[in-house]
Specification:
It is a single chain. The chain has 860 residues and is mainly β. 1% of the residues lie in helices and 54% in strands. The strands form 15 sheets. An eight-stranded antiparallel β-sheet has the order 38-39-40-45-43-42-46-47, with no helix packed on it. Strands 60, 61, 62, 64, 65, 66, 67 and 68 form an eight-stranded mixed β-sheet that branches. Strands 49, 50, 51, 54, 55, 59 and 63 form a seven-stranded mixed β-sheet that branches. Strand 2 and strand 3 form a beta hairpin. The longest helix is centred in the first third of the chain and has 5 residues.
Length: 860
């Protein structure tokens, strides 16, 4: 049946003039037959029996029904005659004619509709029904109308002989009584039909009528939309074109299935709705005329209550399937000058067929009638499988000046179609076509339900407490495991560690989550990184959990009383809310690891323990350089890349200093150890008596940092208490350690030739390399300081492995020169080794050796 539309072109009915002269014989309309138009008597017509009129030997005709449909170009009267031939030979229908005599005395020849135009005979022992139409001009009622039957007779003047007539009684009605079923046909399929309801709705200052009709398919084929036009007709004869509701468009009724079909129309608010009827018409494709079909008297109009209480289920019918709708999870929080409302629309298809929802419009309405639109993009056109439940997240901003209690979520169905043009137009105003016809889109806004929104402020989430929620991705519980704040570059990182547990009986797939974080309710939202500890835990089996970090950067000077976290996912390129929570400023302290205890690194392929090896202070002239070595031991059973560590030094007075890292890029063997170095320059005034290292695992773009990547943050932060050591130089150079080397000066000898300005020094040494720990690039330098017998010093930078070669009993020779040495008569020199790092030094050890005085040989 036709969808709702408004056509701005008058229907031309010039063809009705043809054949209205009483003396003209009926001639069938040539051309192909259109859609069949079956006879469909109303209940009143069915109960009233017209007496047959004889037409010839064994041939008679009886009026089965007669209907009238008023149109701008004249009222169309259609009627169906049933011809019966009881004889043994066929009879030609070209000899039988009918005329409609109006109450005003006009005599109008009946013309067969296109589908019946080619019916030329009635076979022996057969019956044939033919539907005719006439343009009855301004005739507004069937009362007083007659249908005369004539036959061809050459002996009669004018060649037509009247054999009888059918007079329509005064109480004749073509409309089935309210509540009465009518047996009829649609698309040649037997159907039982009855008018169900007439409901009135008021919305936006307009009144809408919703008409329901019940159809039962009595045939053995699927009944689809027969293409009828439907009209709501008042008692005074005013008609309003009806549109199928969006949830009923293109309906299919299976054999023996019963279904209620609903139509909509906008009507004037002043219209009297007593004794209204539903009228169907069908367009005859040959004549392009709209011919009346069945009509049904409607019951008294009712006005349904569309308000759905808080927590109540509203059932709506879409294509005969019941959809249960429920508004749930409503909460509100203030943001800037608005109240931000979030809620969920839960929909469940309780039927046994898949259902696609029509177009809906959503809006929140205040108690004073002001409406605020809500995006319904994810709701309109949604397909629900049988017994499937889906959750649609919704949100709206309502100014704080609006009373927040008493709000309603209005669910509105939009019925209509886009503008179309008539391709059949030829530009002429003659004939049966419409010149330049353009059908302009017209949309009805029809209310479906008004959901009461409970006024509930969003409560802050308490750390460690579990909460339940459901969204379009599934049902799960969540908790904030910890909320930490620690330094990062020029900012602070606020790290919320969340735990999500699948509480449903099927797997829960976490979407590709994005996060934003906001300080206090009036603060600006800032993007945040998400780090999922186990990257394979995005699919959670029933009862399984996943832990993730939400990392937001804030100014280190910022103070806040509460924190809002929003997680969103993407579904078909649309951003869908996943989790929205607020937590007060209950910052958890950073876990402290006592001196000598291990920091634990966890993660797939990254498990390791980290302990302090040593912490030493390089005392400079203007600052102190803090140097910490950590031993990182792999706890994996396979060779694997170790996690990249990030750290900050924290002093006793609460100051933080970024620590520069040095770490091996190589994979670690099972049980293997790596030496990780952190260092930082601190002012001389910094208190380092109670020094700790804020240590964590580096992340880059939501994943663990890899070698060569610059970290954007770090997670799993703990405070490792350090034990700064005091540098005590060795009293000799028999064993000096500069990791990974051990240097042993076995002997050293200095020789001076009398009256020479040079002292030649040789060093006998061992240089052994210890490869038990893997390291990154070590920037230590070995400095050899030589102090001569006069107390004057000079230095050599020794490159281990080059200047000093690995092995035992190696010799390193050097010479020092000064003019003072010409008068040297002996004494001692001192060798001192220094560890130089970033320009600062530590004395490793020192030892004095004697200078051997040599006399040059005499020359002859």
């Amino acid at each position: 049946m036709r969808k709702f539309r408004v056509t701005y072109a008058a229907l031309l009915v010039s063809t009705f003039v043809i054949g209205q002269l009483a003396g003209n014989a009926m001639s069938p309309v040539a051309g192909a037959a259109g859609v069949p138009v079956a006879a469909a008597p109303s209940a009143a017509a069915a109960t009233y029996k017209f007496s047959p009129v004889p037409l010839g030997t064994g041939v008679s005709a009886v009026l089965e029904n007669v209907s009238l449909w008023s149109q701008p170009g004249g009222s169309i009267v259609s009627y169906t005659l049933k011809y019966t031939n009881t004889s043994n030979t066929s009879a030609s229908m070209l000899h039988y004619f009918s005329r409609v005599v109006t109450p005003g005395g006009s005599v109008l020849p009946g013309n067969p509709v296109g589908a019946d135009a080619l019916k030329r005979k009635v076979g022996a022992k057969e019956s044939v029904s033919v539907t005719y139409y006439v343009n009855a001009g301004q005739t507004a009622s069937l009362q007083g109308l007659k249908i005369s039957m004539l036959v061809w007779d050459a002996k009669t003047k004018g060649y037509l002989k009247q054999t009888g007539a059918f007079s329509v009684p005064a109480n004749y009605s073509t409309a089935a009584a309210a509540g009465t079923s009518l047996n009829t046909t649609m698309s040649d399929i037997p159907v039982t039909a009855s008018a169900d309801s007439l409901q009135l709705y008021k919305y936006g200052g307009k009144v809408y009528a919703k008409v329901g009709i019940s159809l039962t398919n009595k045939g053995n084929k699927v009944l689809g939309d027969p293409g009828y036009s439907a009209y709501l007709v008042s008692a005074s004869g005013t008609s309003f074109e009806l549109a199928l509701t969006g949830s009923q468009a293109d309906y299919k009724i299976q054999p023996q299935e019963k279904r209620s079909i609903y139509y909509l129309a906008e009507i004037p608010s002043y219209l009297k709705t007593d004794n209204m009827k539903l009228q169907f018409t069908q367009k005859d494709e040959t004549t392009k005329l709209e011919l009346p079909k069945n009509a049904y008297k409607l019951p008294a109009a009712t006005t349904p209550n569309l308000v759905v209480g808080s927590g109540a289920v509203k059932k709506i019918v879409v294509n005969s399937n019941t959809i249960e709708t429920l508004l749930r999870g409503a909460n509100v929080y203030a943001q800037d000058a608005d109240a931000v409302w979030t809620f969920q629309m839960q929909l469940k298809n309780t039927g046994n067929k898949a259902v696609t929802l029509p177009n809906y419009e959503l809006a929140v309405k205040s108690v004073k009638g002001t409406t605020f639109p809500v995006s319904a993009k994810s709701l309109s056109g949604l397909t629900l499988k049988p017994l499937e439940t889906k959750i649609i997240p919704l949100s709206v901003r309502v100014p704080l000046e609006v009373e927040q209690s008493g709000l309603q979520l209005q669910m509105i169905e939009a019925v209509g179609s886009e503008a179309v043009s008539d391709p059949g137009s030829t530009g002429s105003t003659g004939g049966t076509g419409t010149a330049g016809t353009t059908e302009t889109a017209s949309k009805m806004i029809f209310p479906v339900a008004y959901f009461v929104i409970p006024y509930a402020l969003r409560a802050d989430v308490q750390t460690g407490q579990e909460y339940m929620t459901t969204n379009s991705f599934g049902s799960f519980s969540y908790s904030v495991q910890s909320l930490q704040r620690y330094p990062w570059k020029d900012d602070d990182i606020v790290a919320a560690r969340l735990k999500i547990t699948n509480t449903q009986s099927v797997s829960l797939t976490l979407p590709d989550l994005k996060a934003s974080m906001k300080l206090d309710k009036k603060g600006l939202a800032t993007s945040a990184d998400i780090f999922l500890e186990d990257t394979e835990s995005s699919v959670l089996a029933p009862g399984k959990s996943a832990e993730l970090y939400v990392l937001g950067k804030i100014p280190y000077t910022a103070d806040f009383s509460d924190l809002s976290i929003t997680l969103t996912g993407t579904e078909n390129t649309e951003i869908i809310p996943f989790l929205d929570l607020s937590v007060n400023n209950s910052i958890n302290g950073i876990p402290s690891i006592p001196q000598g205890k291990a920091y634990t690194v966890s993660g797939k392929g990254k498990n390791a323990s980290v302990q302090e090896n040593r912490t030493i202070v390089y005392e400079g002239a203007n600052y102190n350089l803090i140097y910490t070595e950590l031993l990182m031991s792999s706890e994996e059973k396979r060779q694997s890349k170790m996690a990249r560590l990030q750290a900050y030094f924290k002093t006793e007075d609460g100051q933080y200093y970024e620590a520069a890292p040095s770490q091996s890029d190589n994979s670690a063997s099972p049980g293997g150890k790596q030496l990780v170095i952190f260092w930082s320059k601190l002012p001389k005034t910094a208190a380092i008596g109670d020094l700790s290292l804020y240590l964590g695992t580096g992340v880059t773009g939501g994943k663990l940092s890899e070698s060569g990547q610059e970290a954007t943050g770090f997670v799993n932060v703990a405070s490792l208490m350090l034990t700064p050591g005091t540098n005590v130089p060795a009293v000799n150079l028999s064993k000096t350690v500069l990791y990974p080397y051990t240097i042993s000066f076995l002997t050293s000898e200095g020789r001076h030739m009398l009256e020479s300005d040079t002292i030649n020094i040789s060093i006998n040494y061992n240089l052994l390399r210890n490869n038990i720990y893997e390291t990154g690039t070590l920037e230590h330098k070995l400095i050899l300081q030589i102090t001569d017998p006069y107390g004057l010093s000079q230095e050599r930078t020794l490159t281990l492995g080059t200047d000093l070669t690995e092995g035992t009993n190696n010799i390193y020779a050097l010479a020092i020169n000064r003019s003072l040495y010409k008068g040297l008569g002996g004494g001692t020199y001192r060798l001192t080794l220094y560890d130089e790092f970033q320009g600062e030094r530590l004395m490793l050890g020192s030892q004095a050796y004697s200078v051997i005085q040599e006399i040059p040989p005499k020359t002859e």
